[in-house]
Amino acid sequence: MTAAPGGDWPVDRRTGTARALHGPWPPPAELHRRSVAVCTVAGPTTLVLGSTQRPDTIDRARVAHSGVEVVHRSSGGGAVLVAPSAQVWLEVWLPRHDPLWDDDVVRSSWWLGATWARALEGLGARPLAVHRRSATRTEWSDVVCFAGLGPGEVTAGTAKVVGVAQRRTRAGARLHSMAPLDWDPAPLVGLLALDDHEARRARGALEDVACGVRAVVDALRDTDDDNVVATVADAVLTALP
After folding, report:
1. According to DSSP H, which parts of the chain are helical?
2. Tens-place pLDDT, residues 10-47
3. Are the C-beta atoms of 4 and 239 separated by less than 8 Å?
4. What is the fold of 2-225?
5. Sign of torsion, CA 227 167 16 185?
6. CA gap 88, 52 in Å, rounded
């Protein structure tokens, strides 16, 4: 592990398939201290389902034909499509004795959303907002993660930029956070168990619910994918409290 630029956060730079990256982390010997992981997807495009999401949400034939892998994450919420160099993905481990710990599950991720907002604004984004209330559900939020809005998530206007989810245990909390480089709901919708009419309706409903980091940081619009990922990840690490 290395150290975050501005604080006492050990940084674990993890590279692997989405399935591997959603596996156990950090190691048991590291559960006593805070840490942050920068996750780099190497492997197939993967449809990541929430922990309680039903398998019949997706069209297995389309998924098999597309070569997309399907995994479940340990936290709840709707599906996310991840691929190499397509998102900025950071995870945080926070033990219960950490000063940032909050027993209130609604408040507990606000600090992480605020960290992302500071980082993106520092790169030139217009003012962003952190959702500081309970989850807001929509027609599609049980199916698609970015269709709803949960505590600590970051928005530009009404569009979600950063998704946040967490799994809490007796030892602490693992917080997932992710921002797409660009937002296009069509590839994800194409893997869902929807008929043509429902798919068209879903694409229309989901078109403006989210946006990528390129859409909020003008300086990154013409930057190649890997450099966008590295630039944003380093900015978030620097902004950690």
Report:
1. 18-21, 60-66, 110-122, 186-189, 196-206, 213-216, 225-239
2. 999 999 999 999 999 999 999 999 999 999 999 999 99
3. no
4. BirA Bifunctional Protein; domain 2 (3.30.930)
5. negative
6. 24
